[in-house]
Write a structure and sequence with these properties.
- It is built from 11 helices and 9 strands.
- It is of the alpha/beta class.
- A 9-stranded parallel β-sheet has the order 5-4-3-2-1-9-8-7-6.
């Protein structure tokens, strides 16, 4: 069996569609609410990032990090197993911090990812040069891939970061943490173009995006968009109603496809 993220993005590319990815913190509103919000996105959201809460996050802004509802890595694994046991093939990855993995045990973590059907990992605080232990552990299974992050300040390192990258490359489009006002880097077009020229895999733009029109200036460059803080705020304000989630993601995906047609 291949990787769900890679297989799905390949199919999207063949159909000429842009990818839409959402970020949601696991356990926000409770685990049952998280499960319902994930299920509500079927058919519209192409990849779901599940954030694993950590007491001292680096890339998560205050909007994302104020999770005090008892969520944990163990409970998120249980949620994933429940989702896979129900027959869901939605591509899902974890965004988390390496300390959480180390505390769990790297080998045990890799095995659990395989068992529960975790398709990918984004580890913001794990530099490329320190990824070998985790990569060796997950490579023993044919399930989980490590997705790379790049930012405007990592321009010189982009060829090295992308050399063996899998799935997609997550391009941070603005400086600072998520959750603030959209503040795209002044030279974001040049930066994204540079990444696109060097990447063999899809290029996704994240941080500060609210609606599809936010990425219209980059539509000829990027392969998809990632929405995190805005989606989380929407869910909190809507009392974690899965109907609101479905309405938002279906609208965003439709607008993204319409934008693609205009290219």
């Amino acid at each position: 069996m291949g990787n769900r993220i890679e297989e799905h993005l390949t199919k999207l590319n063949e159909k000429g569609e842009k990818a839409f990815i959402t970020y949601y913190t696991a356990g926000l509103g409770g685990m049952e609410a998280t499960k319902q919000i994930i299920e509500a996105q079927k058919g519209y959201t192409d990849v779901i990032e599940l954030g694993i809460p950590f007491s001292d996050p680096i890339a998560d802004g205050s909007v994302i990090h104020a999770i005090k509802q008892g969520s944990s890595l163990r409970k998120t694994f249980e949620l994933m197993k429940d989702i896979r046991d129900s027959g869901s093939e939605q591509p899902i990855l974890f965004m988390m911090y390496y300390n959480t993995i180390v505390n769990y045990g790297v080998e045990a973590f890799a095995e659990k990812c395989d068992e529960c059907g975790v398709d990918g990992l984004i580890i913001p605080d794990l530099p490329l040069e320190e990824q070998d232990e985790l990569r060796d552990a997950i490579d023993k299974y044919d399930t989980t891939i490590l997705v790379q992050l790049v930012s405007p300040i990592s321009a010189d390192r982009i060829p090295t970061i992308l050399e063996n990258a899998r799935g997609f490359v997550y391009c941070v489009s603005s400086m600072g943490v998520t959750g603030g006002n959209a503040s795209f880097h002044s030279k974001v077009i040049d930066y994204l173009s540079d990444v696109k020229k060097q990447s063999k895999i899809p290029v996704m733009m994240g941080f500060g995006i609210r609606e599809a029109k936010d990425v219209e200036p980059m539509k000829d460059i990027i392969d998809g968009a990632i929405v995190g803080s805005y989606f989380i705020n929407l869910m909190r304000e809507g009392n974690y109603n899965p109907g609101i989630a479905r309405e938002y993601v279906s609208g965003f995906k439709n607008d993204l496809n319409e934008m693609k047609k205009q290219m």
